[in-house]
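Quick board copy: two proteins, each given as sequence then tokens.
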Amino acid sequence: MARVKRTDFILIGVAFLAMGCSHESSAIREAWIEKPMSQWPSFALTNEIGFDDTTYTDLANSFLIDTGYDTLGVSCKHIFMVFENQPGLSTIDLGSSFKYWKLYPKNETTTYVHTKSLINKDPNETIGQFNTLKVRDWILFEIDKQNSGLYPLKVRHTPIKTHEVVYAVGWGMRQKDNSIPALTKLQCVENLGDYYYMRSLTSEVQPHGRSGSPVIDSNGYLVGIISGAEGSYGVIGSVRYLRNLFYKYGIEYQRPSH
């Protein structure tokens, strides 16, 4: 009989971040960004992952992206650190005991998509520690084609500027109110290419379990993924690495209109 773990796991406690100035003044704003957060489309998701003997529920965060040609699923690669005790699973590959991976919003668990395949699996990349993953902390999924009603985020292809304010949108492990995901305001301290150091402008943030949350700019475009923390700064992965995955795996994409 399957053992179910409601994962009280601190996935790299991210002391969340901040947000600031607008990035691309010419970008077309997403219409929903002007509305109250309760009226935003459903794009902040979490994960349920099933193996033969174990099911992990509400594990970290995830989201969908719109490449302009297709919809793909995204979560954080360091989620694999949770699977180190799974038999035969020591690399970025789901192994023979894997059954399914489902993405869904915590406040509406009957709405979901299933992944079809892990695009950037790598049987030669061992499950590593956070300080080696922050430059590449993205996993990318092909998903089953179905009309789920979940909203894929459009990707911004220019970097976050120093002092720019952005927003992390996701579910925390200790979040008391799951009616909507938490929003954390972050400000960029330093751009290090494939990742950023961020300062949180939101007080009393419970960081535990927020890894994998999408980070959006003031126009509603995806600019990063919550990865972890170093000292007093949060770390988010840059979409530059995501774009490199597009190139590597031959994924067609188009930049949003301006």
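And the next:
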Amino acid sequence: FPVTILIVHLMKHPGHMVFVVGCPRSGTYLLSSILNGSGQVAIPTETHFIPHFWHFRKLAGRLETPAARRRIIKAIFIFLKIWMARAEEERDVKAVIRHSLLIIEKKTEKIVISSKNFSEIVNHLFLSYAEAKGAKIAGDKSAFYDSVPLDKIDMASGGKGLFIHVIRDARDVCVSWHRISVGPKTISEAAKKWSQHVETKKTWGLQHPDRYFELRYEDLLEYPKHTLRRVCAFLNIRYTNSLFKFHKLAYAKDLSKSSTHKLLSRPLNPANREKWKRNLTRKEIQKIETIAGQVLKDAGYKLAVVG
């Protein structure tokens, strides 16, 4: 029962963030929608700023000073506005903004006062969002095209976050990812990127076993109650049947209004897997398994063509 976070409850890590991570097209938005539906966790739409702003944080000046903190927070909100205008152009941007960090822009001064460094800024941004949503746990979900080292995200958020790693069969990821405009241009490129995503995250998990938990997309579909009970136990939140009503909530409904996430408006469907058996040729399957075969096997998947 393999697979994007860990194994120490938030009661042992009060106030620390939860990160839902994985290769694009692996179900990270699905899990985020389900967790948001619990009413106990608040995960906004993709932010993407954490690793980038961590790398360039010194450009804002000495973050020990309020002026520098104010500058970088302002820059983060500007980035989010630009990002959303581009990334959400297929959806109703005004509707999606309701589920983004932009709703707490008015709390900038409070965050400036409460923070003393970049990681505290990150935590207070997301905790403010969780507070606005009436949740006790703050989280982030950003599925990057190229694999971003979890160490970078971890350091940027204070080095104490929990990571849930969602893994989906590479062959289905390649089918889905290859079809969208921002996806890899070839099946081979998609297989390579999937392998990099999964390997680097698994490696981090082995180094931080108390803060990493793996969740297979297929297990979520086939054994939803058992899988979500494990997730809830990990996060120390209540398991309720309301988790399965995620598709009726505004978060999933608004995000489903695009060709890339339209299934968010529907209940979990056990049949939404192994699409590669219908959509890939034997040659394409062989290509993916040749490139990603060992990583697939390590994640618990059986190969169909390559021995």
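Board note added afterward: The longest strand covers residues 162-167.
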